[in-house]
Design a protein that fits this description.
The protein is an alpha/beta fold. It folds into 2 domains: about 150 residues, Periplasmic binding protein-like II (D-Maltodextrin-Binding Protein, domain 2), CATH 3.40.190.10; about 100 residues, D-Maltodextrin-Binding Protein, domain 2. It is built from 12 helices and 15 strands. About 35% of the residues are buried. Helix content is about 40%, strand content about 20%. β13 and β14 form a beta hairpin.
Length: about 280
């Protein structure tokens, strides 16, 4: 009799625990389900020309505008578009604070181990910004900077930091900054001899200063004899492979069309900066 009472109590407890866990299981949503329902939470890094707030207070840019088109083709909605620090993008995605990162994140083998990338929307070159007239005679490659020992400003956590280090630019000679204005300010004040970003971003940064104080050196697509043409893509959680596959079908059909190139050109990118490598290739290095 006592054993039967204990058995019934155990079964009742187990049933209660199962019932308690059921709502959590039922409430779990995929990205596709959320997009069809309340909408997707998009994170971007406030950086022209990819995703930024214009003078009217609107979020615009190559990445966010292409994303809106592709999600529209999929019949999905966007709930929010949130600007965040670069270093918060991947952690926020993994923690499910965001569903998609639309920050022109360069596809690298290291990042491929953390997130699932879409196919790229562009393939661009790197460049170096110096004071007008290049009074310090800064070289136009990371190799030249390594030889000279000149201080280089670069946005923290970007591929440019890794590429510069890969050819011998010392940690102590890289000033990692949060954004373009801080990088340009460091060069203007003489705290850094040069500032490195991608070529489209550099064109906009120099133009935003009226072209009076800075100039952009010759863009380059190799570092240390290896390809170093950044290709930017959207980032998703790694357990959303099926969604990424469906997303890529719509994305790749749009890339290279007149409408896509119009978005690129409206934000300072050129037709020559269409993607030339696949995500699978880029993930291999």
């Amino acid at each position: 009799m006592k054993n039967n009472i204990v058995r019934r109590a155990v079964l009742k407890l187990a049933a209660g625990l199962a019932a308690a866990s059921l709502p959590a299981m039922v409430s779990a949503e995929t990205v596709a389900e959320r997009g069809a329902g309340e909408g997707l939470r998009v994170a971007y890094y406030n950086f022209a020309p990819f995703g930024y707030v214009n003078e009217n207070g609107d979020v615009v840019g190559e990445q966010v505008e292409i994303l809106r088109h592709v999600l529209g083709e999929m019949g999905l909605k966007i709930q929010s578009e949130t600007a965040t620090e670069w270093g918060n993008l991947i952690p926020g995605l993994k923690a499910e604070r965001f569903d998609i990162v639309a920050a022109a994140m360069f596809v690298t083998p290291k990042r491929c181990g953390e997130v699932a990338f879409s196919e790229p929307t562009f393939g661009i070159q790197n460049t170096i910004i110096v004071p007008k007239g290049n009074p310090n005679g800064v070289g136009d490659t990371y190799e030249a900077l390594a030889e000279s020992g000149a201080k280089l400003a670069a946005i923290a956590g970007t591929a440019q930091v890794d590429w510069a280090k890969s050819v011998g630019v010392a940690d102590a000679d890289i000033m990692q900054v949060p954004d373009n204005p801080t990088g340009l300010a460091a060069v203007r004040a003489g705290r850094a001899a040069a500032f490195t970003i991608d070529a489209p971003g550099a064109r906009i940064a120099v133009a935003s200063e009226g072209g009076q104080d800075f100039e952009m050196l010759q863009p380059f697509a190799e570092v240390g004899g290896k390809p170093a043409s950044p290709h930017g893509a959207y980032a998703f959680r790694q357990d959303e492979a099926e969604f990424v596959k469906a997303f890529n079908e719509k994305l790749t059909a749009f890339i290279g069309t007149g409408a896509h190139i119009a978005i690129m050109e409206a934000h300072g990118l050129e037709k020559a900066e269409l993607p030339s490598r696949s995500t699978a290739d880029l993930c291999e290095g």
